[in-house]
Specification:
Length: about 675
């Protein structure tokens, strides 16, 4: 068995392109091998800033294409079709033979078994595979025709210990690699993948990106532990740094303590986003004036460390200037500047949005029993930091900067917190704020967004969601569900639409309220799935749900899933199942039942007992509040099992008297209708 190795040496590939390139190259080569029936043990792809490397093992030296009969055109087909079939297989028309099969008589040819040398086949397949490699961003350079992620400078290709030579645009593959990748003057001939790894190792290069990542992580943790510090091991940053170095050396730098007076979020984002540094904290989780940088060279003279310290100092001076300048600008006075920032082309500016939020916030304050004045103030200034230089430089700091500006300017802490936290949860997996003022602003902000975009029919499709409306809906639900907030969404949606119209913004979608509620219902379904709720329970609660109380829908699903193995749940389902099966049997023989039995026609105690049980449950449903105790409801419904068993053991539904029979069916219909007030029992498994 043979091995195949391929190195594509380039200018530095941005970290964002490497992961996709690795995945696509692996997938493409595996597909080619499978399509051509080439056996292999594995295909592995690695990358460094300048290399894309493929290695495969367990390949045969040759592949055999077995003989087969190939069917051609039907006998009697036009000569042109018959001649074309013969020509495509390099034989004369006279060498075709006829054969009858189930579908008629056709022309056939028999191919001979052919053994192909895999070396020759790979010479053809590898360039074709490289052509199929798609880059998210590609470029041309010099006068070459090739489009590639970054300029491709050399190709090393080895099969079974021999150079696999092929032409690819302006390059010809060989068995040579650069042993000095900085100056790119020294090259070395290699025989196999092991030989290649030895060359890299002599230069300190770690080819395997996973191994390189682990190496960096361990070094960061080791130095931090030795110094008694803690390091912020941001997974995304770790992935990024792993892809921009291949010979990692972790250095610890320092900056002036005066910068610690700046809000730490500014320092952290400056280090991470601009410099790719890892911030360092003391044991109390407080940011200190040290950082880790991962260099691609050793730093025996300390020059790399010194250079990075100078760069971060300059960066932080800029950040300090912006902070000192921005914090003095009154947030209220910044509101008018929001007129220069567009929310969306046909939905007005951010200023228009804050005015809608202020009025909508006033409405929700009544529902949530919080200070109307605080809600209106917070809604008015919650976007004011968007005009600051800091947020323009670091968009991720929106809200965070608003909070610090508000505190500097003497606003109450809960207002300042709400300016920051109304953006929470930051994503579908984030946590919502637990503070009621923050939640209120978060709710009206997302309601305004959903109403606006649904109102102009800019709705998500199955494959596209350019305005992140799914995220807006899910985070809106998470605020409500995580905080168990009772809010009349239907009223908020209607009021929000009216506020748009007051601003002369034309919402053309007449069904936007119904569509948003349905959209939220679907998102609630996804949240229940994420919680591991059984699919039949989800369908049962969704099918019976009406209105805008998604907290009820969500909690009902969770409670049912919690108790579905309990005796109460099983009794409840068993009662419904027994009754509904009788109704299903009698359905074709009776006029439509409406669930209104006549108590005068009851002839047995069992009928009366069942009727009383149903009436008791109906009374429970009639007096329940929006904060219904679903565990108690399950017990109410499960307590009918005795009455239903007594009924079926002692009462013959199919009575000779048609009036009595129909009345008993009406009683059973009333039973099912009452149960279905809670959930749609017909959707449960086993019903």
């Amino acid at each position: 068995m043979a091995e195949f190795f391929l190195e594509l040496f380039t200018e530095e590939i941005p970290y964002g392109l490497q992961s996709e390139a690795r995945s696509n190259l692996k997938k493409n080569v595996e597909k080619v091998f499978e399509d051509k029936k080439i056996d292999f043990n594995f295909v592995k792809v690695f990358s460094t800033p300048k290399r894309l490397v493929l290695f495969s093992e367990g390949l045969p030296l040759a592949i055999e294409k077995k003989s087969e009969s190939i069917r051609g055109p039907r006998v009697g087909a036009p000569d042109q079709a018959i001649e074309g079939f013969a020509r495509s297989h390099n034989i004369e028309k006279e060498n075709l033979y006829k054969k009858k099969i189930d579908k008629g008589e056709f022309y056939f040819i028999d191919t001979k078994s052919v053994k192909s040398d895999l070396y020759n086949l790979l010479e053809q397949l590898i360039p074709e595979t490289l052509n199929s490699l798609v880059w998210k961003k590609s470029m041309r350079w010099s006068n070459h025709e090739l489009f590639w992620g970054r300029p491709l400078k050399s190709i090393c290709s080895i099969f079974n210990g021999k150079p696999l030579v092929f032409n690819y645009f302006h390059l010809t593959s060989s068995d040579m690699v650069f042993s000095d990748e900085i100056l790119e003057e020294k090259t070395k001939k290699i025989k196999n993948f092991k030989d290649y790894l030895s060359v890299l190792k002599s230069s300190g290069v770690i080819l395997d990106h996973d191994q390189r990542r682990e190496n960096i992580k361990k070094k960061l943790e080791s130095i931090a532990n030795t110094k008694g510090f803690e390091v912020d091991l941001d997974e995304k940053l770790l992935d990024e740094v792993t892809n921009i170095v291949d010979n990692p050396h972790v250095l610890m730098g320092k900056f002036d303590e005066k910068f610690l007076k700046i809000p730490e979020e500014i320092l952290i984002i400056t280090m991470k986003k601009h410099q790719k540094y890892f911030p360092i904290f003391n044991k109390n989780k407080e940011l200190i004036n040290f950082f880790f940088v991962v260099a691609n060279l050793s730093d025996k003279k300390g020059l790399i460390k010194l250079g990075n310290e100078r760069v971060i100092s300059a960066r932080l001076e800029d950040a300090k200037f912006f902070w000192e300048n921005n914090k003095k600008k009154n947030l209220v006075k910044q509101i008018n500047k929001l007129k220069t920032i567009l929310f969306f082309d046909t939905l007005g500016t951010i200023y228009d949005k804050t005015q809608r939020l202020r009025k909508l916030g006033s409405m929700i304050s009544d529902q949530l029993n919080i200070s109307k004045e605080k809600v209106e103030i917070t809604a008015s200034i919650c976007k004011s930091d968007l005009v600051s230089e800091l947020v323009k430089e670091f968009p991720d700091l929106q809200g965070t900067m608003g909070k610090y500006f508000a505190l500097e300017q003497g606003f109450e802490k809960n207002i300042a917190d709400a300016i920051c936290e109304h953006y929470f949860p930051l994503g579908i997996h984030g946590k919502a704020s637990k503070k009621i003022l923050s939640s209120a602003i978060g709710i009206v902000d997302r309601v305004d967004t959903l109403v606006g975009f649904f109102g102009i029919n800019e709705k998500p499709s199955s494959s596209k969601d350019p305005f992140a409306l799914r995220r807006a809906a899910i985070t809106l639900l998470k605020i409500i569900l995580e905080n168990k907030i009772e809010v009349k969404l239907n009223d908020l949606l209607k009021n929000s639409a009216e506020l748009y119209r007051e601003q002369k913004i034309n919402l053309t979608n007449e069904n936007l309220i119904e569509e948003i509620l349905l959209f939220l219902k679907e998102r609630t379904k996804n949240l229940l799935k994420d919680k591991g709720v059984k699919s039949d329970i989800i369908e049962a609660v969704l099918s019976s749900h009406r209105g805008d109380n998604f907290l009820s829908l969500y909690q009902k699903g969770l409670v049912l899933n919690k108790y579905y193995k309990s005796e109460s749940y099983q009794n409840m389902v068993a009662s419904f199942k027994r009754v509904s099966s009788i109704l299903n049997q009698e359905k074709s023989d009776n006029k439509k039942l409406i669930g209104q039995p006549d108590s005068i026609l009851f002839k047995t105690e069992e009928e009366k007992e069942l009727y009383e049980k149903i009436s008791e449950i109906r009374k429970h449903f009639s007096i329940r509040s929006r904060k219904e105790d679903y565990e108690e409801t399950i017990k109410y419904l499960s307590n009918t099992v005795s009455a239903t068993n007594n009924f079926f053991e002692n009462v013959i539904v199919n009575d000779e008297n048609s009036d009595i029979k129909e009345n008993r069916l009406e009683l059973l219909k009333m039973f099912c209708q009452t149960f279905n007030i809670f959930i749609d029992f017909s959707k449960l498994e086993g019903i």
